[in-house]
Amino acid sequence: MLTCTIGAAAQDELRHIKPEAVHQMPKISVEEYKKSIEVLENEEDNLSFEEMKRVGDLTVYTDLYSGFCSWYCGGEILKVNASSYLKPQGSFNYKPGNAHDFNHGSVWAEGVAGPGIGEWLEYVFPGRCPRITTVNILNGHVKTEKAWRENARVKSLKMYYMNKPYAILDLDDSRTLQCFDVGVLGPHDEAAPNWTLRFEILEVYPGEKHQDTIISELYFDGIDVH
């Protein structure tokens, strides 16, 4: 197993956070999900509890594709930066913004040799942004089971809040949406300057074919909206 040993003593002092909730990738396609949402919106009164629950349980697609009200009704990301990213392969690119485009088929892949220990994603927020309480991560190349297994996934991320080490997120090795309760973050003040959250790769689960470490989506939930 590949691990990071630099600064291990300091990292041991940080709080480790495990997923508060884990949601499986849906077995249906996005197109099928959207049709289910149309049915739910137009025929809600005629649907059985089981039918409504089946749509409601598809948390990953609901977050990414439903358009339902969420923290993002007020939440704002100014920019997504990365220490590196993989060069495009044909029409497919691996830019940092792919980790926050609400599309589980596009991904960020670090762009250095090896598994990318020490590489990072950074999100920039305005001071007025609603506060964040949850970090949601689709870990690895989740578009297909094959892509997920062939590429490396994150085992642990060192999280920096306003440029200071804050916690370590410990991820399961599963093709899932993993939700982390990180406390209440952000000033939520019109007069406050921009602030950041950075996620640095500490350890990885190696891929069966490629060394590149991939994150499909990393997005947020929180408070101060509605």
Write the layout of secondary structure elements.
Layout: H1 8-12, E1 15-17, E2 21-24, H2 30-43, H3 49-56, H4 59-65, E3 79-82, E4 108-109, E5 120-125, E6 132-139, H5 145-150, E7 153-161, E8 164-170, E9 176-185, E10 195-205, E11 214-222
Parallel strand pairs: 1-8
Antiparallel strand pairs: 2-9, 3-5, 4-11, 5-10, 6-9, 6-11, 7-8, 7-10
Q: What Rg, in angstroms, do the CA atoms define?
A: 18 Å
Beta-strand fraction estimate: 25-35%
Q: What is the assembly state of the chains in this entry? A: single chain
Series of H and E elements? HEEHHHEEEEHEEEEE
Q: Strand arrangement, largest sheet?
A: 1-8-7-10-5-3
* Helix-and-strand structural type: alpha+beta
Distance between the termini: 44 Å
- Runs in which pLDDT lies below 50 for 5 or more consecutive residues are 1-6
Largest sheet: 6 strands, mixed
Written description of the protein model:
The chain has 226 residues and is α+β, with helices and mostly antiparallel strands. The protein has one domain: Sandwich (Jelly Rolls). Helix content is 18%, strand content 32%. The chain has five helices and eleven strands, in the order H-E-E-H-H-H-E-E-E-E-H-E-E-E-E-E. It has helices at 8-12, 30-43, 49-56, 59-65, 145-150, and strands spanning 15-17, 21-24, 79-82, 108-109, 120-125, 132-139, 153-161, 164-170, 176-185, 195-205, 214-222. Strands 1-8-7-10-5-3 form a six-stranded mixed β-sheet, with no helix packed on it. The radius of gyration is 18 Å and the shape is globular. The model is unreliable at 1-6 (pLDDT under 50).
